[in-house]
Amino acid sequence: MLTVSVEYILRSTKTGHTLYTKEGQIKVDTNVNGGNGVFGALVGMVATAINTAATDKVVAGRKCTSFVLADLPAGKYSPMYEKDATNPAGKKFVKATVK
């Protein structure tokens, strides 16, 4: 399991006012099931350790960013611009596990 804590603050370049803030503690699940029994559990632990070490930290960061910023309103170059105004915003702090 790889745990990433993130905080995003979006400020206006014109006024300096904070437009959007969000924090998250996202866990990237790197567990591998080694099977049943003691030997399977041991194999699973070793495989999970190898998988966690081999996990690309940039890919994990992108997954976390995508998850935390999923409810950010669309910008003016998006076809959803001003059409997503009725979509509810998520919580200010997100805690989740992603694969």
Average pLDDT confidence is 76
Question: What is the distance, rounded to the nearest whole angstrom, between the alpha carbons of the first and last residues?
Answer: 10 Å
| Order of adjacent strands in the largest pleated sheet | 1-2-3
Helix content range of the residues, please? 25-40%
What are its keywords?
alpha+beta; 30% helix; elongated; 3-stranded mixed β-sheet; single chain; 99 residues
Describe the structure in your own words.
The structure is a single chain. This protein is α+β, with helices and mostly antiparallel strands. The chain has one domain. The chain is built from two helices and three strands. The chain has helices spanning 37-54, 57-68; strands at 2-11, 18-28, 93-98. It has a three-stranded mixed β-sheet with strand order 1-2-3, with helices on one face. The N and C termini lie close together (10 Å).
Topology, element by element:
Elements: E1 2-11, E2 18-28, H1 37-54, H2 57-68, E3 93-98
Parallel strand pairs: 2-3
Antiparallel strand pairs: 1-2
What's a quick, concise take on this entry?
With 99 residues, the chain is an alpha+beta fold.
